[in-house]
From TrEMBL:
It catalyses: a (2E,4Z)-dienoyl-CoA + NADPH + H(+) = a 4,5-saturated-(3E)-enoyl-CoA + NADP(+); a (2E,4E)-dienoyl-CoA + NADPH + H(+) = a 4,5-saturated-(3E)-enoyl-CoA + NADP(+). The keyword NADP applies. InterPro entries: DECR2-like, NAD(P)-bd_dom_sf, SDR_fam. One of its GO terms (molecular function) is 2,4-dienoyl-CoA reductase (NADPH) activity. CDD domains: TER_DECR_SDR_a. GO terms for biological process: fatty acid catabolic process. It comes from Hypsizygus marmoreus (White beech mushroom). Pfam families: adh_short_C2. This is 2,4-dienoyl-CoA reductase [(3E)-enoyl-CoA-producing].
Length: 272
């Protein structure tokens, strides 16, 4: 089936939202050293926030933090932690508070993925991905919540759309992301009375990310791996724009929601 010739434009949030809506705010982002979460961090910083990016590889984080600071004119510092290890996350939070004094926004974005059939997946492989994605989200919430209560802040969890249906070779990630969606919903209803919002962004196929690299067969085949109602693959900026919206006051009454940012791909499943 031929898809429409329309190609959705890639819009920069700085041309839509005011530049200083996040002035004085502090973002704590797991997985912020690369890919989608780095793009989300950059967008929030471009609107005035400072940031702490959290991950396992300190060299990569340090380089990314320097580049983000230079690109945005805001402060970004690295904090080494493995989201599966609560103590390391607590240390990253302590570093954040010592340096910036507060946490307003949290992105739970650290994730792991690879293609493997359920019959060939070891228990440890399954446990590893659920450990990073689901337990890692839980640990991040636990480590940050007191500070997010104090600021009446907001969480965004990075999930996926692949668990809405049966996606082959993604049993581990599907189970993990379903858990992430559930954690966000519970957080929204439990912590709403404390002024906290919690939402999920569910990216579809996003170009130039480790996720798409791991899940695509060959570069030349990418365009045929998915159907594109919007005429193109997603872009990191598409996820970044949704992030700015959900953290902004424009989304003040939006909590407990899952926002797929997938160009409508999920709705085309029946045609593939
Ligand atoms: C089968 C595999 C495997 C593979 C690892 N394992 N890779 N099994 N196929 N390709 C198994 C190992 O054999 C081992 O099980 C277990 O998983 C743990 O592997 P380790 O390498 O020891 O774990 P670790 O060093 O913690 O690495 C975690 C990881 C790794 C997830 C396996 O790939 C990683 O660190 N990834 C982070 C970056 C990443 O994945 N980014 C993409 C996220 S994209 P055994 O039984 O041998 O001990 C994303 C988006 C999803 O999440 C949505 C896309 C549309």
């Amino acid at each position: 089936m031929a898809l429409a010739a329309y190609v959705a434009p890639i819009v920069d949030s700085t041309s839509v939202f005011k530049p200083e809506i996040f002035k004085g705010k502090v973002l704590f982002c797991t997985g912020g050293g690369s890919g989608i979460c780095r793009g989300m961090t950059e967008a929030v910083m471009r609107h005035g926030a400072s940031a702490v990016i959290v991950g396992r590889n300190l060299d990569r984080l340090t380089k990314a933090a320097k580049e983000l600071s230079e690109a945005t004119g805001q402060k970004c510092i690295p904090a080494q932690a493995d989201v599966r290890e609560p103590k390391t996350l607590q240390n990253a939070v302590q570093k954040t508070i010592e340096y910036f004094g507060r946490i307003d926004f949290v992105i739970c974005g650290a994730a792991g993925n690879f293609l493997a059939p359920i019959s060939g997946l070891s228990e440890n492989a399954f446990r590893t991905v659920v450990g990073i994605d689901t337990l890692g989200t839980f640990n991040t919430i636990k480590a940050t919540i007191a500070h997010v209560r104090a600021s009446k802040g907001s969480y965004i969890h990075v999930s996926a759309t692949l668990h809405y249906n049966g996606t082959p070779f993604q049993a581990h990630v599907s189970a993990a992301k379903a858990g992430v969606d559930a954690l966000s919903a519970v957080l929204a209803v439990e912590e709403g009375p404390h002024g906290i919002r919690s939402n999920v962004i569910a990216p579809g196929p996003i170009a130039d990310t480790e996720g798409i690299d791991r899940l695509s067969v060959k570069d030349g085949q990418r365009a045929r791996d998915f159907a594109f109602p919007s005429g193109r693959l997603g872009n990191i900026k598409d996820i970044a724009n949704a992030t700015v919206f959900l953290f902004s006051d424009a989304a003040a009454y939006i909590t407990g929601q899952i926002l797929p940012v997938d160009g409508g791909c999920e709705h085309l499943r029946g045609f593939q």
